[in-house]
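So, could you explain the following?
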Amino acid sequence: MEKRIQRGLKAVETHEQRARKLDATLARLEAERQTLVARRAELEADNQSNSNPVSIRVRMDAGFGSGAEIAWLIEMGYTVYTKAYSDKVAQAMHRRLPADAVWSRVGANAEMTFLTGQALKQCPYPVELGLARYTQPDQTMYVVLVRYDPDRLQDTDLSHGLKAWFDTYNARQIIEAGIREGKGVLTLRKPLVRSPAGLELQLHFALFGANLIRWAAQWMRDLVCQTNQAFLTALSEVKAMVTVGAHSAARWVRTTAGACLVWPDQSPYAGTILWLSGLLACQLTLPLWNVEKT
């Protein structure tokens, strides 16, 4: 009888411990539910106040590809192209890949296949997953690509759809190369001033300059009448436009047919002519510090 009582007391203690754990879990889940309810109300208020939302496509490296971060980006209304955060995700999904999976060629050393019936942890939204494998002489690497693009048209040709997905994501490398090039020319790492206001101005001028240079390059491409290869090359290189192009003098010529810019024979862009049209405004050379005294 005594043993039965002891066993009963031990069972009661075990059940009480389980009940305390369940109560703690219930409290945690209830707090999480309240957070999500508040979050949903905040998003609904944002939607009501934003009558004309901007469509933005975000292409990011794996450092921002966790499930929670992808969920936040989706809630912000972005179209998302990224990679899964951890190599462990790629390894796990590769192990669960069916033996008869169909691989499509998407790059010189890359193949890709769709992952169906799998999801990212901490991301409750329906994202598309694709497994890419890169074949190298000494190893084969696997990467999980993640896509959330509700406006994308479904492509019945799976191989073409995978190639378009792969190319769309990897185009971010071209954008990053342009940003890196701009940072090397319009520097922000070496402050030219020390005051807080000066640093703020330097930041804004650098961002403005990086965008203005690319806009000006496209504008000049449309105005080229004749040119040489050096000028065409410079239009695609930020550094060449800033360090060489901006210091190359050209003559402004006005004729009955219109106005044009002509680079002289001594210039690296010799023979280049840009025809100008529309309403023109120019700043004439001012003789600084050479004012006549009266």
